């Protein structure tokens, strides 16, 4: 059995100081909602200013870290998040989400889908049909717009300003995308954060009301968005109302989210 001394010797033997510095910066920034200046990073890590400058420049060049618009603050980009999509944790998100989504679809009698950010737009990674004769669904693997969909706007709304700017900078138009003024989009994001979700008429299909809630990670930022494209019955069949479906979708997403408000 290895002793504590042997473990320490192994740790010292395989040290990689430059890698440690980079990881220290990433771990520090992961805890900061509004980013940090280079001076703050240097002070908090107890490092030399010149070595922090070089390391930050490399992390920015490799797109793991982004500068604020003013250039004086640094925050994490979404690159690590994007890399995580290629890793088994994404499979775990899907496997945990699908039973909850199926339960929602059965109760609400509506379809629903789960989307994550991917290279400037959103990627549908899970989809469940409602049990009824009629319904609307988004094909699994589809790329949907970041700007003009409920999923995209919720994903944007529940990010830091730096992350939102980075996502918008990466965005490319999808087929049929409705143009939205950036100032108007910021207003929509503000309102969405206040409400905690998005409810709006679909900008892609008549007669559909998009209900979207964020799936929140530990830091309170959206790691995914769950949407119900709600269809209202107009015949004599009494289906769950839009208001009831909203409550059900909120409960579904809360069961999946990793973030909890602190008292």
From TrEMBL:
Keywords: DNA-binding, Transcription, Transcription regulation. Residues 79-263 form the IclR-ED domain. It comes from the Bacteria. SMART domains: HTH_ICLR. SUPFAM superfamilies: GAF domain-like, Winged helix' DNA-binding domain. InterPro entries: GAF-like_dom_sf, HTH_MetabolicPath_Reg, Tscrpt_reg_IclR_C, Tscrpt_reg_IclR_N, WH-like_DNA-bd_sf, WH_DNA-bd_sf. PROSITE patterns: HTH_ICLR (PS51077), ICLR_ED (PS51078). Residues 16-78 form the HTH iclR-type domain. GO terms for molecular function: DNA binding; DNA-binding transcription factor activity. GO terms for biological process: negative regulation of DNA-templated transcription. PANTHER family: HELIX-TURN-HELIX TRANSCRIPTIONAL REGULATOR, ICLR FAMILY (PTHR30136), HTH-TYPE TRANSCRIPTIONAL REGULATOR KDGR-RELATED (PTHR30136:SF7). This is Transcriptional regulator KdgR. It comes from Paraburkholderia saeva.
